[in-house]
Amino acid sequence: MELDFEDYFPSMISRLGAEGFIGELCNGFRLLMDVNKGLITFESLKMNCFMLGLEVRDEELVYMLMEGDLDGDGALNQMEFCILMFRLSPCLMDGPKLCTTRQGVDPMLL
């Protein structure tokens, strides 16, 4: 199964402002995390995919975690999650040259 990704981050930043956007990322982290560990774990990610009706193979879940795991603990803390979300946003990573004119994003946020 291939998951499609449409980059809404630039328009969210434009609408919510930088602080509001970071707050929404933090809310997203809290929805996905294991409440006992305060981390997004393999188990919490798998459970959330199941609850959302997504059929994602275990290998794909492991890869998702590895992609953002900066400290090598096999899980994502809030900072790793936020960094990963920014890295996965093509418009935010490509800079203002591609996104500000189309999306109306403040170049200072890019």
Automatic annotation (TrEMBL):
Q: Which Pfam families match?
A: EF-hand_8
By its UniProt entry, which SUPFAM superfamilies does this protein fall under?
EF-hand
Superkingdom: Eukaryota
MF-aspect GO terms? calcium ion binding
UniProt KW keywords: Calcium
The keyword Transmembrane helix belongs to this UniProt entry's keyword annotation: no
Residue span(s) of domain EF-hand: 56-91
KW Nucleotide-binding (keyword) present: no
Q: Gene3D superfamilies given for it? A: EF-hand (1.10.238.10)
Could you list the residue ranges that cross the membrane?
A: none
User: How is this protein named in the record?
Assistant: Calcium-binding EF-hand
Q: What is the lineage of its organism?
A: Eukaryota, Viridiplantae, Streptophyta, Embryophyta, Tracheophyta
